[in-house]
Amino acid sequence: MDLLRFSTAGSVDDGKSTLIGRLLFDSKGVFDDQLQAVARSTVNRSAGPIDLSLLTDGLRAEREQGITIDVAYRYFHTPSRKFIIADTPGHEQYTRNMATGASTADLAIVLVDARYGVLTQSRRHTFIAALLGIRHLVVAVNKMDLVDWRQARFEQIVSDYLAFSDQLGLEAPTFIPLSALLGDNVVEPSAHMPWYRGPLLLHHLETVEVTGFEASAPLRFPVQLVIRPDLDFRGFAGQLAAGQVQVGDEVVCLPAGTRSKVARIATYDGDLQAAAAPASVTVLLEDEIDVSRGDMLVHPEQLPMIVRELDAKLVWMDGQPLDLARPYLVRHTSRSVRGRVAKLAHRIDVNTLEHIATDTLNLNEIAQVRLNLAQPLYVDAYADCRATGSFVLIDPLTNATVAAGMVDRHQSPQPHVHTDFRRLDRAGRAALHGHRALAIALEGPPELSARVAAELEIRLLQRGIQALRVDAAFAHPLTVATAAPLGEVAASLIERLIEAGHVVISDLPRLAEAGRLTPADLVRVSMSEGGSADLHIDAGELSAAAVVTRVLTWLSDAGLFAGSAMLGRGAGI
């Protein structure tokens, strides 16, 4: 039997959980002990009939409020097919939960309350279903019993819904009038709606075609683990994200670009001659080439898009808004790279589909963005392959997932450049770090300079900058060992650190005179009157934190740490 994954969506109180409960109950997909527990819970809440929504709404807060808060998964099967159901919330503040539940679905059921018609959340969830590439859509017009089973009401809702869905370019949805509470047109046909001649919900779920799209796509095999139990076995384990592979196939390992042929395809149950997505296998190659976790095996004539700038749609999932100045980790298949949101093209109003100018994103908002990446990623359009067309953003400080992204079909052509780490120059290091190297010399009262240096180091590190503070205590051991003057030792240290791509902060006096730093390598910040400096700050009564804020603002305005500018420099790689 094949498998169908589907999710429910729609506005609050449209009856999503009740519909799933009815589907499970009428299809004999509920165990007796589950039904007894739901019956006891129903008695505790009311004296009415058994509340089938409790089969999915299991959290205490959900049962107290009568709403769905988190995604609930249920599993059942019929003689024709296996099913995995994701019951997702309807409230706007839980949009991220809905997106999570629908991200793996082949089909979405959008419920519409027959009394109220197409609401804001109905449109919102339809848009997200379209964004997530769900190919099959069922619009279940629920609670037909509350509108006297009227055909005219059903047809009006169909017309209103199509007016919106046609703007998204969706294939024609399947419309089914039903009553989840009473079971009409869910598993059994309704005696109250003889005018409806379409399929029953369960029959449609059993017969809708689930295409094996991933298996027919180009090969994409992200390596998750290198297995080396002994000298005679070196295999690369992972799940086939797309495509097929067989023994004897020539493959290319990205990012190295080295080629080899498949010698074996090993599994727990024995070797295979061929495997197709979404199988999990271990691939052994004929040659001893360098392959590690995060690499990807592909066929040489079917390469993915190789990008350092990535255009995508982004769903923001964190309570803290997007900060364009902050770096994030971009998690794509089994690979993680540093990146920044370099451009917010527009925010998308999911109710009107209007494009709105913005400079940040808040919880549950969706936008068109451009990411700059410290290292290349190997992607496909999300519409072509979900596994290699999707990614998440992770806050490197908290490890929290802050956003989910879908790669656009059209990307700017970008030549693929292999990094030769044996000949990595300063421009190459700047591209890897996401910023240029620099020495910041602080001049002013010693106590204030020391506090500013310490605070500036912390603030730069929080922004993802490779920052290091070099002061007298840092350089002193080398002055003892070499008997060289402090300024000369410090300048030599800073010069080497700059060659390594770091941003170095120092409050040592007369730094520039003692070393061989060029003006392009050095920024002078004066916190006292007089003298020659790139930036003068009349410290006065300012705190160290206030001085640091002014320094950072000046550096940002000067474009010294602009990810979009520096990440594009790849000439020296």
Description:
The protein has 573 residues and is of the alpha/beta class. The strands form five sheets. Strands 7-15-11-12-14-9-8 form a seven-stranded antiparallel β-sheet, with no helix packed on it. α11 (446-462) packs across α15 (544-557) and α12 crosses α13 (486-499). The radius of gyration is 30 Å and the shape is globular. It starts with a strand and ends in a 7-residue tail after the last helix. 40% of the residues are buried. Mean pLDDT is 81; it is low at 59-69 and 562-573.
Summarize, please.
It is built from 16 helices and 27 strands.
- Report the major sheet: 7 strands, antiparallel
| Low-pLDDT sequence parts | 59-69, 562-573
Distance between the termini: 51 Å
CATH superfamily of the largest domain: P-loop containing nucleotide triphosphate hydrolases
Strand content: 25-35%
Question: Structural class, please?
Answer: alpha/beta
Number of helices: 16
Give a count of the beta strands, DSSP E runs of length 2 or more.
27
Helix content: 25-40%
Radius of gyration from CA coordinates: 30 Å
Number of domains: 4
Summed over residues and divided by their number, the pLDDT gives a mean of 81
Which architecture name of the largest domain does CATH use?
3-Layer(aba) Sandwich
